[in-house]
């Protein structure tokens, strides 16, 4: 069935998101490193857009940023990258850009679940 989403896959996704939250917590609380970066007086930051924590580091440093996206995760829409659910598959959905009705429905549901999970993880930071 097209709408199946194995519980094991969801568990791996949640583990991954929790790891990102932990990593972000550690980075943002590393005041010595952050202060050292501030002291360098950089004009701009170039960040890896895959990890949502990169945006927070740039914000904490008070610097504008350029984000490089080696592959969009689920945070593209959050930074203004158009991602129409009708043909842009959600990360980890195993869908392609050509979807039938059920594929689009699965993509919409996974987008909703992803947004809920990201919100829960980001509130831990």
Describe it.
It is a single chain. With 125 residues, the protein is mainly α. The chain has one domain (7-122). Helix content is 50%, strand content 6%. It has helices spanning 7-28, 31-39, 53-61, 101-122; strands at residues 45-48, 65-68. The mean pLDDT is 83.
Question: How would the blueprint of this fold be written?
Answer:
Layout: H1 7-28, H2 31-39, E1 45-48, H3 53-61, E2 65-68, H4 101-122
Parallel strand pairs: 1-2
Helix pairs in contact: 1-3, 1-4
Order of helices and strands: HHEHEH
Number of strands: 2
Gyration radius, rounded? 17 Å
Oligomeric category: single chain
Mean pLDDT comes to 83
- By secondary-structure content and strand pairing, the structural class works out as mainly alpha
Query: How many domains would you count in the coordinates?
Result: 1
Percent in strands: 5-15%
Determine the number of helices (DSSP H or I, runs of at least 4 residues).
4
The backbone outline, from C-alpha atoms, is: elongated
Distance between the termini: 36 Å
GO cellular component, one term: UDP-N-acetylglucosamine transferase complex
Pfam family, one: UDPGT
GO molecular function: glucuronosyltransferase activity
Subcellular location: Membrane
């Amino acid at each position: 069935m097209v709408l199946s989403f194995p519980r094991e896959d969801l568990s791996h996704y949640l583990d991954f998101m929790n790891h990102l939250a932990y990593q972000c917590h550690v980075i943002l609380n590393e005041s010595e490193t952050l202060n050292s970066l501030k002291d360098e007086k950089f004009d701009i930051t170039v960040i890896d857009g895959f990890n949502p924590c990169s945006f927070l580091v740039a914000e904490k440093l008070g610097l504008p940023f350029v984000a490089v996206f080696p592959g969009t995760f689920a945070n593209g829409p959050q930074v203004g990258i158009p991602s129409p659910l009708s043909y842009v598959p959600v990360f980890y959905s195993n869908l392609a850009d050509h979807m039938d009705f059920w594929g689009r429905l699965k993509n919409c549901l996974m987008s909703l679940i992803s947004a809920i999970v990201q919100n829960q993880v980001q509130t831990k930071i």
